[in-house]
Amino acid sequence: MLKYFTIFSLSLQNEFTYRLNFILWRSRNILRFLMTFFLWQGVFYSNRSVFGYSQQDMLTYVFLVLVINTFVLSAPSAENIGGEIARGDLSNYLVKPVNYLKYWFTRDLSSKVLNLAFAVFEISVLALMLRPDIKLPEDLVNLLAFFLASVLAMVIYFLISITAASFAFWRPEDIWGARFFIAILIETFAGGIFPLDILPGFLKIVLQLTPFPYLIYFPIAIILGKITGITLIRILFQSLVWTLLMFFLAKLLWKKGLKSYSAEGK
Amino acid sequence: MREFKIWIKYTINSFEQTLYNKMSVVIFLLGKFLRITLFLIFLNFLVQGSKGLAGYSREQIIFFYLSFNLADSAAQLLFREVYRFRELIVSGNFDFVLARPLNPLIRVLLGGADILDLFMLILITFFSIWFAAVSFHPSISQWLFYALMVLNGLLIAAAFHIFVLGIGILTTSIDHLIMVYRDLSSMARIPVDIYIEPIRSLLTFAIPLGIMMTFPPKALMGLLSGQFIAVSIIIGLALLFLSLKFWSYSLKQYQSTSS
Fold first, then answer.
1. Nearest CA in chain B to A49
2. What is the pLDDT of residue A265?
């Protein structure tokens, strides 16, 4: 356990070594936020309510996307594991007394802590500049459920990343294509640009059969109080089911991949 | 002429390299196509539900997005090599580029054209032309102003990429800079008029994304005055000139520390 604390600490130090890089990474998140924020503000310029959302609800949603994005999608593992397999760099880790996946999960955690700290600062500045009419959560149950859903979302995202990266065991030259494709699916279907409940009914149901809405949309819908009672329990249960499904899929692919791994590129 | 022949050679090599991984080509194209289609559906859905966006009709908003993708794909097609520049600097291999009897800017800016973006560009160009013709019935002069503004946008995109290259030489600690440009430019997926002041003026003139992405469709729709067209071209040329000066300055600072 101690070695993972050391990895956590070293990862934090590593991020501080490349400060300018980190600041630019954070500024990218703000730019994406601004685009979505003003797009919705433009929509509400001539409408009081759109798709059942008031301006206050929607701007709160957009701000929460920035928070949840930071917590769930800030994961260096997603960008590195596939490449390390494809280049044969995985071999360097396999001979070390660390579990490779735990190593990256720990690095992800350190990245999330740092990103979250900066996100709090950024949100405060943005809130001061833009002065949006934000609705703060009131219900304690929903707040707790939000934390639970966010942690599950974080794990699901990590498992999706491993599943996608495992592709590199068999097709190392195509790993970037696979990652790009998954990134687009997440970008659109996770709820980062718009709340998914504005979609027609059948699409909402189809999306629930994929892991994507559990990454961003459901945690936010929970904290906004749009999901309560028995539906809240069902969504948390579905989130847990997706975590387990992705866990077994990632584990199976990783095991099979390791067997066919031949350190190509080394 | 000699430079053009070399650029053609680089481009053919780059295309062959990309086409070698056929599955990657299919996945990337599918991904790019999916991204554009899904955002188009979203915009259409959004504008339909909200009856217009900041004074623009559904057709106008869709054309702004199509035109953004046209300019973006053209810039990516031409300047893809910039995404690989940091690796060239960090590994020290930039020395080999400098040692060749060719302007290094041609190699690092234009030396890796991306065929995937060429496919997308052809597709988007045809669709955009058809959509604009059906929706706005532009006159010949509006089409010409549109083409002029798109070309001017490409000049500005070239200037941005050259600035990124120059900064890449001065500091090796940045590997997200070109992605910051991508995120910045993606703010112009929607017309910049939608942003509040001072962000709107900043995006139009200081970081002239508005000139790059919003002005061309405005010119086609007849919403841009001749004065703005003239100012845009002056800004485009000035930026390109400044970026070339900055590139020369950066080259003089290059210390080949990695080699």
1. B50
2. 65
Contact A123, A215 (CB under 8 A): no
Give the integer Cα–Cα distance in Å for A44 and A69.
Answer: 24
- A49: β partners: A54
**CA nearest to A19, candidates A27, A8, A30:** A27
Computed over every residue of chain A, the mean pLDDT equals 87
Domain assignment of residue B29, yes or no: yes
- Mean pLDDT along residues A181-196: 88
Domain ranges of chain A: 2-260
Q: Is the predicted pLDDT of residue A56 greater than 80, yes or no?
A: yes
Q: Is residue B217 part of a domain?
A: yes
ipTM: 0.77
pLDDT band of residue B258 (cuts 50, 70, 90) is low
- Domain range for B8 is 2-253
A28 Cβ under 8 Å from any chain B Cβ: yes
Q: What is the bridge-based pairing of β-strands A49-50 and A53-54? A: antiparallel
Tell me the residue type at B98. Answer: L
Q: Does B175 touch chain A (CB under 8 A)?
A: yes
Cβ atoms of residues A38 and B195 within 8 Å: yes
**Cα-trace Rg, chain B:** 19
H helices present in A71-99, as ranges = 76-87, 90-94
**Contact criterion met (CB < 8 Å) for B179 and A28:** yes
How far apart CA A221 and CA A219 sit, in angstroms, is 6
* A24 vs B175: CA distance, rounded Å: 9
Q: Indicate whether B258 belongs to any domain.
A: no
pTM equals 0.85
The yes-or-no verdict on residue B87 having pLDDT over 70 is yes
Q: How far is B6 from B11, CA to CA, in rounded Å? A: 9
CA angle A54, A55, A59 (to 5 degrees): 120
Q: Does A129 touch chain B (CB under 8 A)?
A: no
Judge whether A203 is closer than 8 Å to chain B, CB to CB.
no
pLDDT digits (tens, 9 = 90+) for A85-133: 988 888 888 888 889 999 999 999 998 988 888 888 888 888 888 777 7
For residues B45 and A111, give the distance between their C-alpha atoms in angstroms, rounded to a whole number.
36
